[in-house]
TrEMBL record:
GO cellular component, as recorded: mitochondrion
One of the GO biological process terms: natural killer cell differentiation
Organism: Rhinolophus ferrumequinum
Top-level taxonomic group: Eukaryota
Transmembrane stretches, start-end: none
Protein name: Tumor suppressor 2, mitochondrial calcium regulator
Length: 110
């Protein structure tokens, strides 16, 4: 719980190419460590959307439908959550881009 996706899979995109050599290796390296293999930018430009489309094309986090319940001769309206026929929103572009959660830099305001 609380682990980011890349750490949970054992991939650390901002790991050092030196392979860790103790405190003297950490001092000699720059503050921004170069990743192994392919270059991974520190920014995230897209994310997976958390909302859904229903049959009518409406976009929301949750959908409810009103059902009428008759009990002892009295009509009551009750909301029931809809789980079927929902289409995920898909990939959402972030504006402005965010800093990746695994990027090892401490941000502070002077």
């Amino acid at each position: 719980m609380g682990a980011s996706g890349s750490k949970a899979r054992g991939l650390w995109p901002f790991a050092s190419a030196a392979g860790g050599g103790g405190p003297e290796a950490a001092v000699s390296e720059q503050a921004l460590v170069r990743p192994r293999g392919r270059v991974v930018p520190p920014f995230v430009f897209t994310r997976r959307g958390s909302m859904f489309y229903d049959e009518d094309g409406d976009l929301a986090h949750e959908f409810y439908e009103e059902t009428i319940i008759t009990k002892n001769g009295q009509k009551r309206a009750k909301l029931r959550r809809v789980h079927k026929n929902l289409i995920p929103q898909g990939i959402v572009k972030l504006d402005p881009p965010r800093i990746h959660v695994d990027f090892p830099v401490i941000l502070y305001e002077v």
